[in-house]
Specification:
Number of strands: 11
Low-confidence stretches: none
Structural class: alpha/beta
Distance between the termini: 35 Å
Helix content: 25-40%
Strand order of the largest sheet: 3-2-1-4-5-11-10
Number of helices: 8
Order of helices and strands: HHEHEHEEHEHEEEEHEEH
Shape: globular
Length: 256
């Protein structure tokens, strides 16, 4: 899934997101494993607020997104902050991730991995992230929970107002509860122009995600509420994983 028209006011409509709390949590997880610097890939980086915060903290960031429009917004922000030369931006599908070398950590936030697709696609994306991860590397990522898909998004419609546009967000949960089809109608207030984008979020159960991570060589260290960063509870709408890579790809091949 690639946001197109949505990219240009994504930040306006995502204005309530607590990036400072997210950054603080992610950085703490990296530092817990001795990663105060190093190469970190932000998978599905979007317009890059977290990418740039980690860049300013001293990490060598790689921003990966398949949306050219999202990366264009990120690039403009990086130039304004004077850090454009310190961020590598790659327009790639996470399913075909190619980082040309190993990384010390990866992050993925705001339910990027829910958008990837059915289970075989999710598993492929985790495998690709694992493939480039050094032993001891840290993977911090979040997912919308089954509870959010089935009880909050469900068949509901929301309207989100920004300074320049209004977004009508219509959801339809499948009968089996394994995905939510989402339609966005974006209307600009100044010109009256309207655009529509459609995409799907897939639902992954907690135990399934743990099993996929373990098969890809990760040890799941913790799972918390991805909004409060406290304990995960039945009504949590987002879950955040911290997983640590247990071996390099060369070590795995040697043991096959």
């Amino acid at each position: 899934m690639a946001y197109n028209e949505f990219a240009y006011f994504y930040d306006e409509l995502n204005g309530e997101a607590d990036y400072e709390a997210l950054y603080t949590y992610v950085r703490a997880r990296l530092e817990d494993h001795g990663l105060e610097t190093g190469i970190v890939a932000d998978l599905g980086c979007g317009t890059g607020d977290l990418t740039l915060m980690l860049t300013q903290a001293g990490y060598d960031m790689i921003g990966v997104d398949q949306s050219e429009e999202m990366l264009a917004v990120l690039r403009e922000k990086a130039e304004e902050l004077g850090v454009a030369g310190r961020v590598l931006l790659l327009q790639q599908d996470i399913l075909a991730l190619d980082l040309y070398g190993t990384i010390h950590a990866a992050v993925s936030t705001f339910d990027t991995f829910n958008h990837i697709g059915p289970q075989e696609h999710f598993e492929r994306a985790v495998y690709r992230a694992a493939f480039f991860m050094e032993k001891g590397g840290v993977f911090v990522f979040d997912l919308n929970t089954p509870y959010k898909h089935r009880q909050i998004l469900a068949h509901n419609t929301f309207e989100v107002e920004g300074p320049d546009a209004v977004c009508r967000w219509q959801n339809r949960c499948s009968a089996s509860g394994d995905r939510v089809d989402i339609s966005l109608q974006i209307s600009y207030l100044d010109t009256g122009e309207s655009f529509q984008e459609e995409f799907t979020e897939y639902t992954y159960e907690l135990d399934y995600v743990r099993a996929v991570l373990e098969r890809c060589g990760f040890l799941v260290e913790s799972v918390c509420d991805g909004e409060t960063f406290g304990p995960l509870c039945p009504e949590s709408q987002r879950m955040c994983f911290t997983a640590v890579k247990q071996y390099t790809q060369m070590e795995k091949q040697a043991n096959v």
